[in-house]
Each structure stands twice: as C-alpha cells, then as structure tokens.
Amino acid sequence: MSTFKLCQSLKLSHRYATTEAGGQYKKFLTMLKRQQEPPYLYTSNPDIIQETIDFSVYKGLTSTIQKQQKTSNLSLFSQLGVNQTSEQLLRQNEIHEPLFVQQKSLPILFARRSAIIESETGSGKTLTYLLPILQNLGNRSCSNVIVVPTRELASQVYNEILKYLPDRRLAVRYVSGIDELQERKIDTALRESNVVIGTPKRLLEIFETKSGYFRNVRRIVLDEVDKLLPIKSLDKIGMAKTKPADKLLAMLTFYNKRAQMIATSATVSYKLIQELQDRGFTKRSSVIKCSPDEYKHGKVPNNIQHLFVVSEATTSPHGIMGNKIKMITQLFRQSNERSTLVFIPRELSVQNVADIFQEMGFAAVALYKKVLLPSSNEFEKFLEAFKEGEIQIVVCTEETVRGMDFPFINRAFLTYIPTLPEDYVHVAGRVGRANRKGIVTTVLDGADEQSERKRLKRRLAALKIKARKIVFN
C-alpha cells in the first residue's frame, strides 16, 4: 500500500509522510496499519502525532511509546538527527542541549528541505545551518556555499566551522576581497574545498571566472539574508537595483536547481519571503519563525535592558559626536565592564571615532582594521584581547558586526537612532548572547533632545519595548 493511501486510511494528511522522519515514519505507519507493535518513532511534533492518530484502536501502542520514552538513552541532539561524531564535537565545545531554533529547524534541514529561518539574535542560527553541512560535506569541490554580507562575518563563520570539523583533511575555504591568491592557487583551493565561505562580491568575481567549480553545489546558505537581499528598491530612473548577491544567487540556482537552500536572519518579513521565492526558493520551502507573528520587525531577546541618556549640549572640539563620546566614557567607567561595543552611523569614519577614544586614554580600535584576515590565529588573538580588556572599546557600524558573536560583551552603546526597527534588533543582538543579561544604551544629542526622544520611542514601540532614561544626580 502506498504511503498516501496509508495516510488516508489513518486520516493523516500526506504532508506527515514527507515532513517527518522519512523511511522510519513510513515503517511506523506500515506496522501501525498491520496492528503490529511499531518501533519507537522520534518526531519533532509528538503532540501532532498523538492528536492525529486514534491510539485506542491499536492496543498497547500508547503504553509502548511511553515506556520507550522513559528508557531511551538517546540525547536530544541524537533525536534531531545529529550523529555521534558531531555530538562529541559539540560536547567538547560545551554544547550539551539544542536551542529552540535548532529543535525546530534541524529535522527539516537534515531531511534536505529548503528553509527560511527567523530567530532572535544570539539564538544559535549559525550552528543550526552548520550541523547539516558538517554531516553531509560531500566529496565534490564547493559542495557547500555560505554567503554572508561582510568579510568580518565570513571570518567568524570560518573559525566557527573549524571548531566542529570532524576531519581536518576536509577543507573549508574562506574567500574575501583582500584575498590575493594567484589563479593557480585559487584553482587548488576550490578543488580541495568542501565548504566555501565569502561575501557576494568576492564569490561573484570567482564564479565568473571559475564557474565550473560551482555546478555541483549541494547546499546554498544565505546568512543574514535581509542584508544580502533587501527588498527590491528603484533607482532614480525607475529601474530595479541589482546587487551582487542577486546576480550570484541567480547564477548558483541556475546551475544547481536541486540544491538545498537555507536563509537565516533575525528579521524576515513576508515581503522578503516573497522576494526569496522569486529568487529561487520554492514555494514549498519551510518558513520557520521562532518569534511570535506579532513581532513583525523581529524580536529583541527579553534578557536585554534598554536605556537612553542625553549628552551635554555644550560645544565640543569634536562636535556632537565628541559630546556623545564623553558621555559613553563616563558610563563605561562606571559599569566596571572590561570591554564594550560602540555603534556609529555609516557615514562617519570608525577610525576617526576610535582615535577620539584613544585621545581620552582608552584602548580603542576600529573593527574593520582588526577582523579581516582568514587566519584563525589572527581572529582568536583579536577576540582574546577584546575579552580580556586589552582592547576596551571597539568602534563599528551595524553592518560590520551583523551576525557576529561576542559572547563576553554585556554592554553596547548606540550613538544614533536606527532608521528602521529591524536595525535596532541587530544592534541590540550583539549583547545578551545565549540568554545572558545585556544592556543597550542609546546616547541622544542634548541640543535636540525632544526630537530624538520621539524618534527613539517610535522605533522601540514598533518592537514592543521601552527604554528607561539614565539620570545623573
């Protein structure tokens, strides 16, 4: 009897036969139909199975499931499809239980289904898409392509995947705009790499000259997809703008129509989902939203506290930013934190702002000057210095650190009001990682306090959060 007819006779929809544990689920249904005692079924939706099947018809089945649930020695990761090798590597990195986004997403990703995943910042999205890659690296070159919006994030993903690589002979290649490999070395690197990580612009440059290596891609990942593929906008003459990521995705999907596609972000709107479907994601792709629908701009974790403070209205040698920097240094000294992030608008120079902090006696750096190299040692040295307070202040933009993980940072300062609520979500998400407590402080201009307070209130109201004012005695 076909799976479809089995589902019909059991009053199940055909969807359950394809979305659950593949052949194991078919075997479960077959034995259930024959009224035999079925094997234990590991499912991500036990409540749905219990509600859908009338267990009273099949004697002893409910008690069998309950008994096996109690005696099962499989871990939560094993139940989601993670193999023993990957689980050992997770334990070595002090990861023992799957996070919520991993519980919802891994069964779908291991079934090689395309997915669009929305989850809070710091909730474990990177590891969610890395686990299926690590267990199914493939034997072909460039079997997995991970596209990220910035070189800094590419560097961090590269170092993250090295932690869980089961076999060091399997190659992971990080490519960036500063990559100066000669043509022959690029060929060798691509031929030997199971995973390629890079920004759209750099990957597109390589694709246009080395397209042969990208014709057998099994998995395409778009990390921080809302930054890679923003909603289509029109230029001055009314023509739709085309970004490198658009062209890269079009070429990858043209040559790899059966590749699994994964998109992740903390903010995935319904318009973005439609855009992704137009760009190669099928309408049958699973949309996994780990935030309630009421948070249409994304959800800021509840463990983050939101504050604002007003800088002095006096004239500073460095202008308005100088007044804000003075306020940040005062709050930073009082906080007893070793290190912090300071966000500035894109139109300002991160190096110039870092220089002002240095003039005031702080060990400050501009992020883009530090995290550029693919070398694991360089990145680890930067993180260690930042963690230990050797680097006290890192000046950056929201785009630069989008998706990056600084688990030791508990406080961040914002020197401007983001244009969109979604941008605030990503800024706030740099602190309070993995359910730790965090504080985000927005510094307002004292000369324009009322106007800026109204703008900040509107942005936060869209996210259903409120900010408390810091008052000095």
TrEMBL record:
Residue span(s) of domain Helicase ATP-binding: 106-286
SUPFAM superfamilies named in the record: P-loop containing nucleoside triphosphate hydrolases
Helicase C-terminal domain: residues covered: 327-473
EC identifiers of the protein: 3.6.4.13
Enzyme class: hydrolase
InterPro entries: DEAD/DEAH_box_helicase_dom, DEAD/DEAH_RhlB, Helicase_ATP-bd, Helicase_C-like, P-loop_NTPase
GO molecular function: ATP binding; hydrolase activity; RNA binding; RNA helicase activity
Catalytic activity: ATP + H2O = ADP + phosphate + H(+)
Keyword terms, alphabetized: ATP-binding, Helicase, Hydrolase, Nucleotide-binding, RNA-binding
Record's keyword annotation contains Cytoplasm: no
Described function: RNA helicase.
Family membership noted in the UniProt record: Belongs to the DEAD box helicase family.
Free-text comment on this protein's domains from its UniProt entry: The Q motif is unique to and characteristic of the DEAD box family of RNA helicases and controls ATP binding and hydrolysis.
UniProt name for this protein: ATP-dependent RNA helicase
